[in-house]
Design brief:
The protein has about 220 residues and is an alpha/beta fold. The protein is built from ten helices and six strands, in the order βαβαβαβαβαβααααα. It folds into two domains: about 140 residues, Response regulator (Rossmann fold, 3-Layer(aba) Sandwich); about 55 residues, Orthogonal Bundle (Arc Repressor Mutant, subunit A), CATH 1.10.10.
Length: about 220
């Protein structure tokens, strides 16, 4: 596998692990994906614990993960897989349409979220996009994400570093918590370049010379705790 970024190289197929407790759906999806050029179904799992174990053994590029599974649900399985192997991209494919499940999956580290009504083209597009380091959501899910962030709660008047944008403040808080750039990019669904650009803006606005000085300023203001 290339060391230049996540996912398969142009000459290698995208290796996918499927995790779903319904054998008919799981086996049908395996057959469907195996028929698509550029995708290799590396294995399947019938529950969350098995998904974690098989992901550790197989080291696929992508895990297509159901949410409601026995033994260990897909949210916790996603959290464990991403913690153990950050390069593995998780695409949640579920019947769950509620916002709580959606945002729990995002917080756990999933980079894609589709409903089980998604067609072959949507599933394939999500797998390819996430293997290239992108985050992707089905059309209905994407609208809910956009609506959620379109009306953020009012910021408190005494907000720390008012010269920073909300995104810059969010990144500074993660810097103060000791998170490296790749983890910040993954947590906020941003590209590494976008994170670097935001950090440069933060340093300029705070008049600090480096990351260590920014961390001191941020922690003094209560960020990163």
């Amino acid at each position: 596998m290339s060391d230049t970024g996540p996912g398969a190289t142009p000459d290698e197929p995208i290796r996918v692990l499927l995790a779903d407790d319904h054998p008919v759906y799981r086996d049908g999806l395996a057959v469907l994906l195996a028929s698509i050029p550029g995708i290799d179904v590396a294995g399947t799992a019938a529950n969350g614990n098995e998904a974690v174990e098989r992901a550790a053994d197989l080291q696929p590029d992508i895990v297509v993960m159901d949410v409601r599974m026995p033994d260990l649900d897909g949210i916790e399985a996603t959290r464990r897989i991403v913690a153990d192997s950050p390069h593995i991209g998780v695409v949640v494919l579920t019947m769950s349409e509620d916002d709580a499940t959606l945002f729990a999956a995002m917080r756990a580290g999933a980079r894609g979220y589709l409903l089980k009504g998604a067609n072959q083209a949507e599933i394939t597009r999500a797998i390819v996009a996430v293997s290239h380091g992108e985050a992707i959501f089905g059309p209905a899910v994407a609208r809910r994400v956009a609506d959620f962030f379109a009306s953020p709660p009012a910021a408190p008047r005494d907000v720390a570093f008012p010269q920073l944008t909300p995104r810059e403040r969010e990144i500074l808080s993660l810097i103060a918590a000791g998170r490296p750039n790749p983890q910040i990019a993954s947590a906020l669904f941003l590209s590494p370049k976008t994170v670097r650009n935001n950090i440069s803006n933060i340093f300029a606005k705070l008049h600090v010379a480096d990351r260590a000085e920014a961390i001191v300023r941020a922690r003094e203001a209560g960020l990163g705790r």
